Amino acid sequence: MLLMKDIVQEGNPVLRKRAHEVKLPIADEDFQTLREMMNYILNSQNDSMVEEYGLRPSVGLAAPQIGISKKMFCMHTYDETGENSYSYAVVNPKIISFSEEQTYIPSGEGCLSVDEEKNGLVPRAARIKAKAILVNLETLEAKDVVLKLSGYVGVVFQHEYDHLQGILFIDKKKESMSGIKPVIFTEEEPTAE
Ligand SMILES: [Zn+2]
Asked: What separation in Å is there between the alpha carbon of 91 and the centre of ligand 1?
C-alpha cells in the first residue's frame, strides 16, 4: 500500500512534467496504479489508518504524485451538500470547457505533494465539462464519458487535472478572491488535498 513516503514532494521534476497519454487498451500495470491511488485515498479517509500509518487525508491523487508521469488520477469525495459521492478513477482526461464564472474553496486548497503551510486560496472555474475514460476498479470496465462537474467536485477535478499538466495549486494561489463566490458547504468541509 502507498504511504506518505511514496508521495513525491514539490521540487521533484516529475511534478513539473506534462504527463504522457495512457496507451489503450489500458494495461494491467496502469489498472494497478489506479487501484493503489484509490486505496491511498480511501485509507487516508479512515481515522484508524491515518493514525496507524501517518497518512495525510486526501480526496484526490494523481499519478505524477507517485512518480508515474501518465495521465491518470483518482478522486473520492462528497460534494458540498454531503449528499452525493463521487468516486472516479480517471484516464486521459481533457477539460473541454471552463465556465467564465469562478469559485474557490474558502478554507483553501492543499496538496499531498506540498507542505501544509502553503495551503491557500485558488480561483477555479465554477463549472467544467471534461472528456475522460472512467475505470470501474472492480470490474476493470473502462468507459468513455463526458462529465459536467461544478462546485467542490469540479475544483477537485481541476486540481488533479493540473497535476497532469505539471501545474501545482501554488502556481495559481491568490491573496484575494474579491468578486468570486466561494463554494458553500452545507456539510462539514472535507479536506481539499
Ligand atoms: Zn495535489
From this structure: 16
**How many whole angstroms separate alpha carbon 56 and alpha carbon 43?**
10
- In the structure grid, which three cell numbers stand for residue 131, read together? 472528456
What does DSSP say about strands 85-98 and 72-78: parallel, antiparallel, or unpaired?
antiparallel
The amino acid at 121? L
Domain ranges of the chain: 4-8+18-171
Each residue of 62-108: pLDDT tens digit?
999 999 999 999 999 999 999 999 999 999 999 999 999 999 999 99
| pLDDT for the residue numbered 189 | 63
Quote the ligand 1 centre to 62 CA distance (angstroms).
7
Which residue out of 51, 138, 141, 160 is catalytically annotated?
160
Report the distance separating Cα 66 and Cα 81, nearest Å: 30
Distance 74 CA to ligand 1 centre (A): 11
Instruction: Judge whether 160 counts as a catalytic residue.
Output: yes
User: Which conformational region is residue 96 in: left (phi greater than 0), alpha (psi within -120 to 50 degrees), or beta?
Assistant: alpha
> Which region among 25-29, 86-90, 186-190 has the lowest average model confidence (pLDDT)?
186-190
Q: Does domain 4-8+18-171 have CATH number 3.40.50.1820?
A: no
Apex 7 CA angle, 164 and 193, nearest 5: 65
105 touches 182 (CB < 8 A): yes
Predicted confidence (pLDDT) at residue 24 exceeds the cutoff of 80: yes
